[in-house]
Amino acid sequence: MFDRRTDMKLIRRCKRGEEDAFEEILARYRSPIYNLCWRMTRNDEDARDLGQEIFIKVFRLLDRFDEQYAFHSWLFRIATNHCIDHLRRQRLRFLSLERDGGSTEEEAAMQIPTDDPTPDKILQSRDALEKLEEIIGELPPHYRVITLLRHDQELSYEEIAESLQLPLGTVKARIHRARNMIQQLLEARGYEI
Hints:
By secondary structure, the chain is mainly alpha-helical. 72% of the residues lie in helices and 0% in strands.
């Protein structure tokens, strides 16, 4: 999904002060970072703000980036930590467990692939995805982020371990526990997905 060789070329150009190289990095990673932020916060405005803050931080820290590591791992580690810090700051604020009823552009553009989609099947699939999103949104942040990195960003266990600076066994255990928690929450609510 992420091309390490291209990333390294862009990083080197950025370090030389080439602004268009950073624009290319933004173009490559804006959507995955926004998606991670949105799925961590479940709020479009917060996700946009966090994404901007993350890229500002990355730009400022770029000289510290160690090229022996994958850039996307470093970027997702910064993004993950920034989102978790944001959630900790917001902990005292009340958050509704119910969806706001509105749809984001991402949800409106989402298409569910089926052989011969009928409207009722599409509605059932969307309903199932919304329920799953709701459940994932309720996971503790360290389980939520690991689930999103694995299933939304499609990172390997090794890439997640590198991004979060965790032992590989811890990553596997947290993914397993998160899946169990998701299953228990789904069953507790009587959801069938």
